[in-house]
């Protein structure tokens, strides 16, 4: 029952490790996520929920600014947009603008102008 929690924590830690260790590149991990056209509806929901949990773990452990940086990685951003459901794109995926709005509403990335203050406030996390 806790496998999804373990997986989201593991992916979050791998992504956070890539920010401080220049020899590690999580691109292969993120590229393993299927493209939107290859996903069935139930798979899209599962991938979307996993990626949101990953961002939640990053946010809780390293702060909203770190979550914003992880979400902006090319591979992570593409995976989030492919798994999310949007109205503006013809294939039903999220546009970049829709994705940013959803992440802000969910509190996973800071609103504009709150980057430094949010990071300073979130220095204590579950992994420290």
Explain how this protein is built.
By secondary structure, the chain is mainly α. The chain is 63% helix and 0% strand. It contains 7 helices and no strands. The longest helix is centred in the middle third of the chain and has 22 residues, at 41-62. The radius of gyration is 14 Å and the shape is globular. Residues 115-128 have low confidence and may be disordered.
Largest sheet: none
Q: In angstroms, what separates the terminal alpha carbons? A: 25 Å
Radius of gyration: 14 Å
Shape, per Cα inertia axes: globular
Number of strands: 0
Order of SSEs, N→C?
Answer: HHHHHHH
Structural class: mainly alpha
The share of residues in extended strands comes to under 5%
Helix content: 55-70%
| Model regions low in confidence, pLDDT < 50 over at least 5 residues | 115-128
- Count of individual helical segments: 7
- Average pLDDT confidence is 75
């Amino acid at each position: 029952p806790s496998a999804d929690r373990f997986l989201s924590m593991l992916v979050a830690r791998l992504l956070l490790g890539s920010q401080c260790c220049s020899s590690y590149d999580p691109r292969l991990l993120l590229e393993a996520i299927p493209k939107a056209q290859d996903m069935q509806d139930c798979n899209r929901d599962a991938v979307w929920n996993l990626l949101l949990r990953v961002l939640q773990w990053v946010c809780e452990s390293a702060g909203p600014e770190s979550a914003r940086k992880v979400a902006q990685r090319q591979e992570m951003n593409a995976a989030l947009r492919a798994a999310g459901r949007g109205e503006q794109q013809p294939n039903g995926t999220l546009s970049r603008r829709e994705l940013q709005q959803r992440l802000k509403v969910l509190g996973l990335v800071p609103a504009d102008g709150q980057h430094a203050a949010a990071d300073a406030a979130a220095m204590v996390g579950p992994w420290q």
